[in-house]
Amino acid sequence: MLVSIGTKNRAKNAAITNIVNNYFEQVEYIQLNVPSNVSEQPYSDEETRQGAINRALNALHTSGAELNFGLEGGVRTIEGNMYCCNWGALALKDGTVITAAGALFLLPEQIANEIRSGKELGPVMDTYTNEKGIRHNKGAIGVFTANLVDRTEMFEHIVKLLIGQYQFKKEHE
């Protein structure tokens, strides 16, 4: 089975391969740098969800794979507080799209203010932690949960939701 992944981000790729390998055999992966067609820093659940859908569909159109994943992180505001939000999409070969969302966690006001000023979370986190490529491993969630949850684990939950919905759909066609 050919599975395409609409990003080359290491944390997102690990989440997809970790989960897909538990449910399918003889999987071949292709990692694609496809656009999300949304802002570099999505600012709502709707925009973040659309970015995941766009990545999954762009991966499908590029690869023609049986399963095509798009994962997208963004931010949303609730009562003046900024939270990270995360969405995933699975585009099937027939064009069907399945979506799911994951964990929400509060960003400290210092980080939220940087994002409100127009910056993207990934680079802000690199500066905040004095590390490079935070988004490829522990992510903001790792930093702000004292490493109890990393970015791969956060996205694994979404991938499980997508695979579960896919399997339910197949069983009930």
TrEMBL record:
It holds the Pfam family NTPase_I-T. Its cofactor is Mg(2+); Mn(2+). Its EC number is 3.6.1.73. It comes from the Bacteria. It is an enzyme of class 3 (hydrolase). Transmembrane segments: none annotated. The keyword Metal-binding applies. Residues 6-161 form the Non-canonical purine NTP phosphatase/PRRC1 domain. GO terms for biological process: nucleotide metabolic process. The keyword Nucleus does not apply. Belongs to the YjjX NTPase family. PANTHER family: NON-CANONICAL PURINE NTP PHOSPHATASE_PRRC1 DOMAIN-CONTAINING PROTEIN, PTHR34699. This is inosine/xanthosine triphosphatase. It comes from Ureibacillus manganicus DSM 26584. The lineage of its organism: Bacteria, Bacillati, Bacillota, Bacilli, Bacillales.
